[in-house]
Amino acid sequence: MTTPAIDPEIQATLDATDDPFLHDPDSIFATTEWFPALRTVVDVPRDDRVAVQDHFTQGGLRLRVYRTANAGLQPLILMLHSGGFVHGRPETEEARALRYATDVGAVVVSVDYRHAPEHPYPAAVEDAYAGLLWAVEHAAELGADPQRLAVAGCSAGGALAAATALRARDTAGPAIRFQLLIYAGLDDRLNTPSARDFTDIPVLTRFAVERIWEYYGPDGAPDGYAAPARAADLTGLPPALVMVAEVDPMRDENIAYAARLSAAGVNTELVQVPGAVHGFDLMFAHTTIGERGLATQVRALREALHA
User: For residue 127, with 0-12 CB atoms within 10 Å meaning exposed, 13-18 middle and 19 or more buried, which class applies?
Assistant: First the structure.
């Protein structure tokens, strides 16, 4: 399969930097030596319109809460950050959380879930669901409306968001109104055309994804909570926006998951962003398509939660 051309603005950014995280993901994920540095939080953005506060569950799980001073109860968004299950913090996606809080007009609860390989599956899934239960239980004190609840995540966080929606359905848990899955890591089998063929591209390659699943994966065959594409039944799940990057090994598994959601009777919007690479709205937020991707997410969340 021919690799699509990368968006010119993203390519220009890539050409102007030698950051190994962007150019050589294979070396980043080949061993665990990079992970401590990648877990370090730097240059956290701020927005004076948003109050940011850390809360902790009884089990010690940290939840970072973002809220504007808008009057009345606001919708509630549980957010799961990216990082291949092995790095990242709520702070590394602070800009996204702030954007959701201000432009969606929602209380955002971002989960500082445990990392692999020290804590492989199901640790992150358990933390994500614990965060959901905490957010709903404490909604009143947060100024949030638990009846207008969404889960959102990108990459590994997208996998956790999908797993949280599945688990809430399976356990008669909190009613989730909407799920936002952004270039999510849904399928450990890596048998789609994009997963097979996108081996030499920026930001994320097949080799890197293979290592990620090795670090994260459970003993034995993964189930639908570890790899949501393995879930046999997608009926009864909340409506979804599935956003994919065109130049991304995870592209086709997301397209397939969106098709399965739709076939199961779930209202599903699929958006493929031409020329986008993995993380296009995070690491390349300054580009036209990066901004368009974020604006599309805000629009979908507003439509779902303010209806």
Answer: buried
Handedness of CA 14, 110, 297, 268 (dihedral sign): positive
pLDDT tens per residue across span 19-54? 988 999 999 999 999 999 889 887 888 899 999 999
Structure tokens at 85: 């299950």
Please state the φ and ψ torsions of residue 249, each to the nearest 5 degrees.
-55, -25
Confidence band for 182, pLDDT divided at 50, 70 and 90: very high
- 31 contacts: CB under 8 Å, gap ≥ 6: none
Hey, what are 200's tokens? 């030499």
User: Dihedral sign, CA of 29, 21, 188, 97?
Assistant: positive
Rg over alpha carbons for the chain, rounded to the nearest Å, is 18
> Active-site residues: which are they?
155, 248, 278
The predicted model gives 188-203 an average pLDDT of: 95
Q: In angstroms, how far is CA 253 from the centroid of its own chain?
A: 15
DSSP 50-89: EEEEEEE-TT--EEEEEEE--SS-EEEEEEE--STTTS--
Q: Rounded CA gap, 185 and 157, in Å?
A: 8
Which of 171, 170, 151 shows the shortest CA–CA distance to 160? 151
Cβ count within 10 A of residue 69 = 8
**Is residue 87 within 8 Å of residue 39, measured between CB atoms?**
yes
74, 24 Cβ separation under 8 angstroms:
no
Classify the phi-psi angles of 95: left when phi > 0, otherwise alpha if psi is within -120 to 50, otherwise beta. alpha
104-161 pLDDT, tens digit each: 999 999 999 999 999 999 999 999 999 999 999 999 999 999 999 999 999 999 999 9
- pTM over 0.70? The answer is yes
